[in-house]
């Protein structure tokens, strides 16, 4: 089992990924946490000190390292992971990718509380501005997210529903 979760910030990749790894009894890796471990500093600190281009370079490198180390895993990517450095090709070629398709209004509600730990969103003051920003981001990222062979809509992004989806997918493969 090599299952990769992709989708916007707040989609629930980290939360659902943990649950799926328990259910499938495989290691769970959160790519952001791995980057933090390698760098010895937080994601906001990396963005502030080095900028986004550096973060994307490290993200691409750590992604490849993690995949080389784990024949089986559930991987929660960061929201931007599939959109840079041909990462989406690596994901599609090495495992099953699942897009957590969650409406922007829902994303906004979830990330607002945690905005401080999400550097790309931290500077945004109110809900309308946040939703506009998320819509703009999604508009660019959708072309990458849409390449995932599997997708779940918000209400179906549960461990049980994803297990059923995967069982059907693997039976038809
Ligand atoms: N299915 C869900 N329903 C409601 N809230 C959720 C759900 N999944 C995640 N959350 C909450 O949304 C926030 C972002 O979740 P997280 O798993 O960190 O998303 P991501 O890794 O995709 O950015 C967290 O506060 C989390 O508790
Ligand atoms: O959308 C993005 O570009 C990012 C999302 C974050 O991960 P989550 O999607 O888990 O919040 C993290 O990788 C970084 O802050 C950049
Ligand atoms: Mg996450």
From TrEMBL:
Cofactor comment text: Binds 1 Mg(2+) ion per subunit.
Required cofactor(s): Mg(2+)
Stated family: Belongs to the shikimate kinase family.
Gene3D superfamilies: P-loop containing nucleotide triphosphate hydrolases
Annotated localization: Cytoplasm
Name recorded for this polypeptide: Shikimate kinase
Species, as recorded: Hymenobacter tibetensis
Oligomer status and interactors: Monomer.
Catalytic activity, as annotated: shikimate + ATP = 3-phosphoshikimate + ADP + H(+)
Ribonucleoprotein among keywords: no
Any one GO MF annotation of this record: kinase activity
Binding-site positions, Mg(2+): 14
UniProt xrefs under HAMAP family: Shikimate_kinase
Keywords in alphabetical order: Amino-acid biosynthesis, Aromatic amino acid biosynthesis, ATP-binding, Cytoplasm, Kinase, Magnesium, Metal-binding, Nucleotide-binding, Transferase
Protein residues bound to ATP: 10-15, 118
InterPro entries assigned to the protein according to its UniProt record, in alphabetical order: P-loop_NTPase, Shikimate/glucono_kinase, Shikimate_kinase/TSH1
EC numbers on record: 2.7.1.71
Enzyme class: transferase
Pathway in which the depicted protein is active: Metabolic intermediate biosynthesis; chorismate biosynthesis; chorismate from D-erythrose 4-phosphate and phosphoenolpyruvate: step 5/7
Residues engaged in binding substrate: 32, 56, 79, 141
